[in-house]
Amino acid sequence: MTQTTDRRPGPRRPLVRPPRVHRAWSVAAVTFVTIIGAAAFASLPGLLIEPLHAEFDWSRGTIGFAVSVNLALYGLTAPFAAALMDRLGIRKVVAVALTVIAVGSVLTVRMTEPWQLVLYWGVLVGLGSGSMALAFAATVTNRWFVRRRGLVTGILTAAGASGQLVFLPLLSWLVEDHGWRPAAVTVALAALAVVPFVWLLLRDHPADAGVAAYGAEGFTPKPPPVRGAARRALSVLFSAARTGPFWLLAGTFAICGASTNGLVKTHFVPAAHDHGMPITAAASLLAVIGVFDVVGTIASGWFTDRFEARRLLAVYYALRGVSLLFLPMLLAPSVQPPMVFFIVFYGLDWVATVPPTLALCREHYGEDSAIVFGWVLASHQVGAAVVAFAGGVARDVFGSYDVVWYASGALCAAAALMALVIRRGPLPALAPATPA
């Protein structure tokens, strides 16, 4: 039988005998390490509120606004970054993003005005981190894995929590003993340290390594670059926006972001400090959330491969809402057993919502699921941005964060109901994007 030579980019023929450990797992490992290194930037905002307020006398609402710009751009950049990865390749996009994060972090050391915080930390770090968002993990998972996608999604999502575990104690110690500037420099160095790993070890597509995707029935040549990244991202958005599941997924994920990155990650440390708890102790509690987040997210990925995703989401949001309603009663000058229980419980549920949300995107939107998930992630970060700003304003106005905890608990209950409304089964295929 004559074999036809494929002249498109990529190897001329696949490997006959794949390696004992599939190359997809090494790519997933590099992605995991990359997300851990980039997680340093996500660990810092909650530690900056009190030091910046003390040094510059900026209001918590002003500082929260800069954090909200960061979180919003983190989300809004993600779908365009996913499309750029189809056009330019994963390695180039991620390496540039890490460099932008490093530049923005270093520039904050010289700032003296609030607008500089908004520009350096809000805009530059927000754009860079948005390109390193969960759409990066979704793109790697979709390209390299056919089987075990739920598990791999959980593992890569947990990488952010692992980075939080690594960096939060270090950064809180630096802020407490040496000021916030050394902590900002540490974030920059952590981002730059990951660039060589990305450039040397990460591969854009299984065809680059001469293998089929993990679990695939056959070898697939590398597709040509997709031109018109911005147009494709917007085209996929307009197609998805005509479907009901997109708005339900976006709404639930907006509440997810509001109750995690916007509320707990940004305001838990200053809220605990209001009750007399030292910053290092509060930051250590957030790090413990990271420990159990790893367990909860990987377990959620395993559950997603076996159970109905929308029911999992409903359970996760309902449990999160209940825990937030009890939090104001648990804050105290020292760490008590009920607070430890809350931290463990909340950690298990922190981003357990990601694997079932991504699974529902795949179920309804097929090959465009990474970009659709990027837009759903944008709603996550917009929700986080709103609460990051509103939480600071509420603290300035009411002198307490209690009203924000209660409101977030009620929103999580609404998200649980929304998740149950998402209908089963795939929708008709979206119209293909028109090339630029």
Description:
- The chain is mainly alpha-helical and 436 residues long.
- Helix content is 74%, strand content 0%.
- It is built from 18 helices and no strands.
- It has helices at 23-38, 40-43, 45-56, 60-88, 90-107, 114-131, 134-144, 149-178, 180-201, 229-240, 244-259, 261-274, 279-304, 309-326, 337-349, 354-365, 369-398, 402-421.
- α11 packs antiparallel against α16.
- The longest helix is centred in the middle third of the chain and has 30 residues, at 149-178.
- It starts with 22 loop residues before the first helix and ends in a 15-residue tail after the last helix.
Q: Please tally the β strands and state the result.
A: 0
Tell me about the biggest sheet? none
Radius of gyration: 21 Å
Provide the structure class: mainly alpha
Low-confidence stretches: 1-8, 10-16, 427-436
End-to-end separation in angstroms reads 39 Å
List the helices and strands and how they pair.
Layout: H1 23-38, H2 40-43, H3 45-56, H4 60-88, H5 90-107, H6 114-131, H7 134-144, H8 149-178, H9 180-201, H10 229-240, H11 244-259, H12 261-274, H13 279-304, H14 309-326, H15 337-349, H16 354-365, H17 369-398, H18 402-421
Helix pairs in contact: 1-7, 1-8, 1-9, 3-4, 3-12, 4-5, 4-6, 4-7, 4-10, 4-17, 5-6, 5-9, 7-8, 7-17, 8-9, 8-13, 8-16, 11-12, 11-16, 11-17, 11-18, 12-13, 12-17, 13-15, 13-16, 14-15, 14-16, 14-18, 16-17
